[in-house]
Amino acid sequence: MSSSYQYSRLESPEHVRLIHVSPGTMGTTITCEIHRACLPDSPVYEALLYIWDLDERAGQPAEYYCILCGEFQTPIPPNLFSTLQHLRKDAEDLVPCVDAVCIN
Q: PANTHER family this protein is in (predicted)?
């Protein structure tokens, strides 16, 4: 398993990356795949906005959790990890656009 995701170039400014978070239950590993989508094609996704690195802003060292994006480990902040744990579904993919994962 490689240690970090390598972003490929987007085709145009109309393209975005979305993650497809695999179904799962609380406490199990979060796995996902990163897909590219063209905004004029009206992809269905959820925008996930949040504040990250709160610990660093408070002068504390940042703590990160890892999720699996394909074969790559991707570090994410604790509040995003907790949000994905709570939002992911039991039987279908969750498809959010998350800046910490989708933007290089």
A: ANKYRIN REPEAT DOMAIN-CONTAINING PROTEIN 39 HOMOLOG-RELATED (PTHR24148), HET DOMAIN PROTEIN (AFU_ORTHOLOGUE AFUA_8G01020) (PTHR24148:SF73)
Residue span of the structural domain in which 38 resides = 15-102
Work out how many domains the chain is built from and give that number. Answer: 1
Is position 82 within any domain?
yes
pTM, rounded to two decimals: 0.79
Q: In this structure, which long-range contacts are made by residues 13-17, counting pairs with CB atoms below 8 Å and at least 24 apart in sequence?
A: 14/38, 14/39, 14/40, 15/39, 16/43, 16/97, 16/102, 17/97, 17/101, 17/102, 17/103
Neighbours of 103 (CB within 10 A): 10
